[in-house]
Amino acid sequence: MSALADLDRRVADCRACPRLVEWREEVARTKRAAFADWTYWGRAVPGFGPADAKLLIIGLAPAAHGANRTGRMFTGDRSGDVLYRALYDVGLASRPTAVSADDGLTLRGVRITSPVHCAPPENKPTPAERDTCRPWLVEELRLLRPTVRAAVVLGAFGWQAALPAFAAAGWDIPRPRPPFGHGTRVRLAGLDLFGCFHVSQRNTFTGKLTPEMLRDVLREAAGAAGLPTEG
C-alpha cells in the first residue's frame, strides 16, 4: 500500500470529533428520501486523485448527502456537479459528472481534498474541529510535496484552514498572511496558491461564481502546475 493510500484509509477510520461522527452517522441512518435505496458511506471522506498530482484542489468539508453518501469528494451533490463539469471542460477530468465512487471518473494530474473530512451540521465545522482535522491535511501535503506545483483553495474557510497546513507542511507563508479573494495568487517556494469562490449553491445560483470564472482559475492554476488544458 502506498503512503497516500494508507493515509486515505486512516482518514476514513477517523472518529476524533464526537459531534461530527454523530452527525455523519445519523445522516447515514435517516437518509434523504431521494436516496432511500442508497447505503451511505457515513464516514470521514479521504482525498481523491492520483498520488503524483501536480494540482491540488482544497474544499471545505463533505456534504451530508453528497460525499457523506458516496464516499468520494464532491460526488453526488450540486457543488460537485459544478466543479467536475469545469474540470472536464478544461481537460482535467475524464467525465463531466460525478455520481458515485464507482462511476469511472478519473482526474488528470489533480487531487481533491478538504481541511475537514467529515460532513458537519449546517455545513459549518467549528474552529476546534477544523484544527483537530488539520494534521490529516498536513500529512497529505507532505506526501504530495514532491509533485504538487499549484493549489486552488475554494472559499474563505478553506483558505484560513489551508494556510496553516501549508506552513506546517514546510512552505513559508508570507506575513501577514495573504487575505482570501477570488483570483488571488500567492507564490510560495515551488508552489502557486490560488483563491477561488466556493462552488456552493449559494455562490453558483446567485452568479457570484460563474462557470467561466471557475474555468479561468482552473486553467491558470493548471498552467502554473505544468498541466495541459483544453477549451
Automatic annotation (TrEMBL):
Gene3D superfamilies: Uracil-DNA glycosylase-like domain
Pfam family membership, one: UDG
Keyword Oxidoreductase in annotation: no
Keyword 4Fe-4S: yes
InterPro entries: UDG_Type-4/5, UdgB-like, Uracil-DNA_glycosylase-like, Uracil-DNA_glycosylase-like_sf
Domain Uracil-DNA glycosylase-like as annotated: residue spans: 46-218
SUPFAM superfamilies named among the record's database cross-references: Uracil-DNA glycosylase-like (SSF52141)
UniProt keyword terms in alphabetical order: 4Fe-4S, DNA damage, DNA repair, Hydrolase, Iron, Iron-sulfur, Metal-binding
Listed CDD domains: UDG-F5_TTUDGB_like
Family: Belongs to the uracil-DNA glycosylase (UDG) superfamily. Type 5 (UDGb) family.
Protein name, as recorded: Type-5 uracil-DNA glycosylase
Lineage: Bacteria, Bacillati, Actinomycetota, Actinomycetes, Kitasatosporales
